[in-house]
């Protein structure tokens, strides 16, 4: 693509707002959305890792940001995003490797499972991390 | 009347695939397999390392296995991130210039963050064992 103008006169495929939403489509879109989310969240974790090497003062500042309400909300969303991408990524490998789970009913159910897994696992890990440790 | 003297083959050449899709796909999957194994450990590591302040975090990465696994996780993650973001940029940005700029920025960000974080883990580990 050399320019931003669309010159192809052939009809375009229906865009997001025209498609009827279904679980497999949602899982596919959210795989990409969470991928970008994980990318952005990696900045936060990178700053944390670098601050450990930088010394106690720097670590204190970063720890303060992480433990602030905004930091905690970002971390929780990042955890959920990471877990969804993780579960759905494993499904991608099962699709590519053993080539299983393409049946529409299975694919839909598996998509629902991945969303449920992300939320339940994030809540479980979060409560274990804040209560048991 | 057309003044294009190119043969149909010459006109079509260079417009097909870049012949690098399979390689990209395999790299994406191999880094994904590494991450599928490393991410569960990574979640445990971040929680374990962050529960008792600066000293706890330093002590955690002073352990050789933790330092090794962390550097492996960072390598696999930043590599996987670079490949994934590359596809996102290629899919949504048709504008020449902007697209190439973001692709280069993506590489610089991922390589830069890997260098900075891997060096940090090494520094923590080496400082603790001196």
From TrEMBL, chain A:
It is found in: Membrane. The heme is bound between the two transmembrane subunits. Its cofactor is heme. GO terms for biological process: tricarboxylic acid cycle. It comes from the Bacteria. Gene3D superfamilies: Fumarate reductase/succinate dehydrogenase, transmembrane subunit. Keywords: Heme, Iron, Membrane, Metal-binding, Transmembrane, Transmembrane helix. It is a multi-pass membrane protein. GO terms for cellular component: membrane. InterPro entries: SQR/QFR_C/D, Succ_DH_cyt_bsu_CS, Succ_DH_cytb556, SuccDH_FuR_B_TM-su. Its main location: membrane. The chain crosses the membrane at residues 36-54, 66-86, 107-129. Membrane-anchoring subunit of succinate dehydrogenase (SDH). NCBIfam families: succ_dehyd_cytB. This is Succinate dehydrogenase cytochrome b556 subunit. The lineage of its organism: Bacteria, Pseudomonadati, Pseudomonadota, Alphaproteobacteria, Hyphomonadales. The gene is sdhC.
């Amino acid at each position: 693509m050399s320019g931003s103008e669309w010159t192809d006169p052939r009809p375009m495929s229906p865009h997001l707002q025209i498609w009827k939403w279904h679980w497999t489509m949602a899982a596919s879109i959210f795989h990409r959305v969470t991928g970008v989310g994980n990318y952005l969240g990696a900045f936060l974790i990178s700053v944390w890792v670098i601050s450990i090497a930088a010394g106690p003062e720097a670590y204190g500042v970063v720890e303060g940001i992480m433990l602030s309400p905004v930091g905690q909300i970002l971390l929780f969303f990042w955890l959920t995003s990471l877990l969804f991408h993780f579960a759905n990524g494993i499904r991608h490998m099962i699709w590519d490797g053993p080539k299983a789970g393409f049946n529409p009913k299975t694919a839909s159910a598996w998509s629902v499972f991945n969303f449920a897994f992300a939320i339940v696992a994030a809540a479980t890990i979060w409560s274990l991390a804040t209560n048991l440790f | 009347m057309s003044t294009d003297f190119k043969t149909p083959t010459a006109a079509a050449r260079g417009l097909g695939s870049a012949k690098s899709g399979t390689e990209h796909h395999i790299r994406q999957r191999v880094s994904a397999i590494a991450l599928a194994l490393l991410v569960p450990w990574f979640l445990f590591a971040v929680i374990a390392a962050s529960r008792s302040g600066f000293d706890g975090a330093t002590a955690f990465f002073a352990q050789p296995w933790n330092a090794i696994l962390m550097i492996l996780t960072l390598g696999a993650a930043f590599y996987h991130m670079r490949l994934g973001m590359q596809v996102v940029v290629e899919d949504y940005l048709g504008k020449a210039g902007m697209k190439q700029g973001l692709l280069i920025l993506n590489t610089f960000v991922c390589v830069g963050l890997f260098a900075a974080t891997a060096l940090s883990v090494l520094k923590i580990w080496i400082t603790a064992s001196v």
